[in-house]
Design a protein that fits this description.
Layout lengths: L31 E7 L2 E7 L12 E7 L8 E2 L5 E8 L5 E8 L7 E2 L10 E9 L5 E8 L15 E7 L10 E2 L1
Antiparallel strand pairs: 1-2, 2-3, 4-5, 5-6, 6-7, 8-9, 9-10, 10-11
């Protein structure tokens, strides 16, 4: 459910049935959106409010963001802007958090600059939440160890981080990370 409304998706999108699928979310108007890890990227399926898929050609859009280590996340602000966090490889063989944004009901996506700590370490299990327009937060696990998440060294220490911005609707959001 989202904003005290319940949506039941009674069809699978063009991406098919996939265990790496987010909860359906929607803003006050527009379609219901659902992020799915497909192949090497995150795809967003669109459904109308009754649960039926919106057209076969516009029913899904590739965000061009790399797939997540686990289940993807999606959130929508009250103006209908959708945000998807992802975990992109960094130069040190780890992963850092990047955010995709769509202002047209999930049809096209813009990749925003990586979060400030994305260049080092490894981030996984990213989940997004939103508030007012432009207010987006991302929670994720992070370690200073830069490594492939699937084969982390034994004893790796993980920290939970919260990154928050009030200008996610800008070209280069300013993040506060705790």
């Amino acid at each position: 459910s989202n904003r005290a409304q319940r949506y039941t998706v009674d069809q699978t999108g063009p991406t098919g049935n996939n265990p790496y699928t987010s909860k359906p979310v929607a803003g006050p108007t527009g379609p219901v959106l659902q992020a799915v890890d497909v192949g090497s990227s995150i795809v967003v399926n669109s459904y109308n409010r009754t649960g039926a898929q919106i057209g076969t050609s516009s029913g899904s859009a590739d965000t061009k963001l790399p797939n997540t280590f686990t289940v993807p996340s999606i959130t929508v602000t009250s103006d209908g802007t959708a945000y998807v966090p992802s975990e992109a490889p960094n130069d040190l063989k780890g992963r850092g958090i990047v955010l995709g944004r769509s202002t047209d009901a999930g049809k096209t996506w813009t990749k925003l600059p990586p979060l400030p700590d994305a260049a080092t370490g490894t981030a996984i299990f990213s989940m997004a939440a939103s508030g007012t327009n432009g207010h987006v937060g991302v929670a994720y696990y992070w370690t200073p160890t830069s490594h492939d998440p699937a084969s982390m060294p034994a004893g790796t220490v993980w920290f939970i981080k919260w990154a928050e911005t009030h200008n996610a609707d800008s070209a280069a959001p300013t993040w506060k990370i705790t």
